[in-house]
Design goal:
The protein contains one helix and four strands; from the N terminus they run ββαββ. The protein is mainly beta. A four-stranded mixed sheet has the order 2-1-4-3, covered by helices on one side.
Amino acid sequence: MTATIPVFVNGQRILLPRGETAAMAAAQHDPALAARADAVSVSITEARGLPVAPDAVLVSGAILRVAVSARRGGGADADA
């Protein structure tokens, strides 16, 4: 077995140590996401668009999409 696995984040191939999580893949893809990986504004989905938990352990060839919501978290609607 190899020590690293290839995964794809937003179309970019990255190599991760075996056993790493979706949050770590997102952080390696975009270091600015490292501080926001647990925030509500960051969404991680798999190739079919289904949500992936940030602590999900990835397998070789995993395809992830990472998006940051433009909406601000918390608080009531301004029009309410």
